[in-house]
Amino acid sequence: MTTETQASPPSLRGQFPQVLLATLASTVGFWAWMCIAPLQATYAQEMGLDEGQISLMLATPVLVGALGRIVVGAMTDRFGGRVMFTVVLLGSIPAVLLVALAGSIRSFPLLLVAGFYLGVAGTIFAAGVPFASAWYAPARRGFANGVFGMGMIGTAVSAFLTPRMVEWIGYLPTHFAIAGIMLVFAALSWLLLRDSPAWEASRMPLVPKVMGALRLSITWKMAFLYGIVFGGFVAFSTFLPKYLTTIYAGEVDAVGAGTRAAMFAVAAVIARPVGGVLADRFGPKIISLISLAGIVTLAYIVGQQPPEGILTGATFLGMASAMGLGMGAVFAWIGPSTPKDKVGAVSGVVAAAGGLGGYFPPLVMGATYNAETNSYWLGLWLLVLVGAGALVVAGMMKDAPRPG
What is the pTM of this model? Predict the structure, then answer.
């Protein structure tokens, strides 16, 4: 009797509300992380920024948010999601206030510093993956991570609400409101989140844990794939307003571009849990291949600069959906293929690769923009080529082991 009791798995009752609260907290973190991008036109006009400075401004929070995920993922293995959600949200509040100050005094150097610090908010994703995974059995972790991954809808919230809030209540009050919401969710995370009974704290020091993750071949393979699907999502989420107002100048204004960026993010958010569920059902490899094939095809179409209208909108929505499917599939691939005590560390490295995948494209797009032809064709062709390479890599990999 005692042996059977000890061998029985822990009860995971209340799993969905826990993952849902983590998703909402992640949404707030993503909103803060992306609060500079929707106002880029305002910053550019008021501070007299050129193409390179705009790209650097957009890319800086992404870089820090990417690299910081390695640390946060490993720390989540040790301290748990409840602690790390609270720490990340509280630690990011001063960054939002610093952005408010930089914009108020129109200081580009201070805005870069604030953007660097703002990257902390983007690390919240690495806390949620091991947290959500521990709440579900291996056969349903694609679903769990797909639901949690919907927190990236915070990019859509930021694109849609931030410029409108600035119009409604003003620049400073908008950032104060974001900081206040972060404080509320930090408190809710501390008071209501609880780590799964199946979760076990890892006492391995941070550096050996990260090095152990880096020694796993699955880490590098997943990092490359996630760098395409999530990196592409982050890059387009931040750069799409700039792209649309440049390529379709006179046809798309700043508010319209922000709305389309929000729709892009929503499409990816909706597709992400679908990708996770389909990966649970058919295996993550086939869903990843479908995702990458869609990204390559649609990036080629974007590179042709079709006329503004239904085709352009459908192309970007299709690309967002393909990226969302891939995000769900890749993280469904990680759990069954990774040692239990390294899920957080591997997830952190892979999430960092995704963030880095979103860091470089805006810089490349800014550097390769052809003013004479008003075209970003070279940057888009690079996406096509890298995506094709990822398609080959995914095709050569073994599918995730299925639960027995």
Answer: 0.79
